Amino acid sequence: MICFSRDDIERISIKVINKYKQLPELQGLSITKIDPTLLAVCLIGLKLDFVHLSLRGDTLGLTCLDETGVEVYDEADEPYMYLLDGSTILVESDLKTDSCCQGRCNFSIMHETAHQIFGRMFPKEYGPRSSPKVHCYKPIYNQKTIKDWEEWQANTLASALLMPRDILIEDMKMFGLGEHIEILNSIYRPEAFMKFRFLAEYLGVSQQALAIRMKYLKLLDHDYLNHARDLLTVYMED
Question: How far from 82 is each of 60, 103, 229, CA to CA, in Å?
Fold first, then answer.
């Protein structure tokens, strides 16, 4: 397996997005956001299907670079075998039917697409394997250390593909956020936060994913999405 840096992945994303912009379906259009389904299906040539991937709902997406079978579930929660052909990505069907999960759905599509992109760009490093490897996307929150580099790389590429730097900068201007946000806080900076929330909805990503991406691109200094009142917190010195 190749261990890519963030800069490596950024360069890969730029190449993919440049090809995305050349799709016949987008000619003559102003591209202000990325359609993950269009990128996955029309550019990369993948098949996308929505099924129940787990009983607990903790698996949001999966794919495999080889032909193999995976156990999924029908509407009655009965297991059955789904045959993957090496170019199919599966996404949890509940994400598609729940409008509140648009960000998770789009990110899951792009995460699995990222695995396929890495596999196609670097076939020697990512295959063939002695046995098929199924990539399962299970979000892990508040993990401070990277335990699975392949999943980290897929997450990083997914973020870069959904929120390309040039498009994100133009969208920030379009939504009245300027070129940079110093503090993102729903209580003390409500106007900027509202614009930020509308931007996340427009891009089809979660607020957390957008904030992480903006901080990496140095478009945002501090966010208080989970702790809006922290600006009032006074910490005692030792």
Answer: 16, 25, 47
